[in-house]
Amino acid sequence: MDKHLHIISLNVPYPADYGGVYDLFYKLPALHSQGVKIYLHCFDSGRGEQPELNKYCEKVFYYKRNTGTKGISFRLPYIVSSRRNNVLLENLLRDDYPILMEGVHCTYPVLDKRFDNRKKFLRIHNTEHFYYHHLFRSTNNLAKKLFFLRESKLLKKYERELVRHVTACWGVSKKDVSYYRNEMHCQHADYLPLFLPAWQIQFKESAGTYCLYHGDLSVPSNERAATWLLDHVFNQIKIPFVIAGKNPSAALEKRVHRNAHTCLIINPSENEMQDMIAKAHIH
User: Fold this and answer.
1) How far apart are CA 125 and CA 218, in angstroms?
2) HSE-up (13 A, CA, CB side) for residue 110
């Protein structure tokens, strides 16, 4: 008997070039290898169509996210309201296959009564209202602080209501699962580890030449961690320090260049990143 599954992805899950997209992408070949026929629905935030996804999916749909004022709702969190899409709903209603929603971001269909009797599964990437509260605390930009605080409050209310409308929740961490069970009274929450590639660690036999920190530097908490290392560690020891990652701010770039022994690698390729990891002494 054929196994069919709709997956709604909060972003185009390829290339796997930042932490949050690994589970989104590597779940596809894992399910495909088990004979699951995948219908992938992606919200494209500028990554574009990716032919690689066709290897694992029966069909791939791309939808434009409603960013800016078009995505604002007084009732819904922005990460949900900006992914409202009637074409997506119509595509999902063409059959009665189960739906896997990748993150709270992709749960707008549960608000539609036409999906009341469908099997709907939620992948919990974070306890989102906690995550946005940490973003609120991590940034010094007033406009962003107000946005993150509002989003955190809306998400707390939304997540509590959401668990009543899904068939099951699968968390990437045991801590999130425990919170959903004990604080949100979601008894159908279970732990499902991250889907990851079959990594092989590449390293040099001799000592490395520098320390390395990398991450998505557009995330305020990651930038804050990099800045802390610059201010509290590498201003006291003169060991070469490399920061690498996506879309750093001008403020971080300026801060890095104050020291001759610290440098910033902006938007490295996968090959560049692996080479830096292999040559680092401390990662």
Assistant:
1) 18
2) 27
Instruction: Quick: pLDDT tens for 66-121.
Output: 888 888 888 899 999 999 999 999 999 999 999 999 999 999 999 899 999 999 99
Q: Which of 262, 247, 153 is nearest to 213 (CA)?
A: 262
The CA distance from 255 to 253, in Å, is 5
Is 41:47 a contact under the CB 8 Å cutoff?
A: no
pLDDT in tens, 120-176: 999 999 899 998 998 898 888 899 999 999 999 999 999 999 999 999 999 999 999
CB within 8 Å of 265: residues ≥ 6 apart: 242, 243, 244, 245, 272, 276
Using CA atoms, how far residue 84 sits from 121, 212, 230, 243, in Å, is 18, 39, 41, 36
Q: What is the pTM of this model?
A: 0.83
- Token output for 36: 């699951």
Contact 232, 60 (CB under 8 A): no
**Residue 219's closest CA among 134, 102, 128?**
134
3-state SS class at 255: helix
Residues 6+ apart with CB under 8 A from 122: 101, 103, 104, 107, 162, 163, 166, 168, 169, 170
16, 41, 274 from 56: Cα distances, Å: 15, 13, 25
Distance CA 10, CA 40 (A): 11
CA atoms within 13 A on the CB side of 67: 8
d(CA 215, CA 17): 10
216, 245 Cβ separation under 8 angstroms: yes
19: tokens are 């932490």
Residue reference for tokens 């434009």: 64
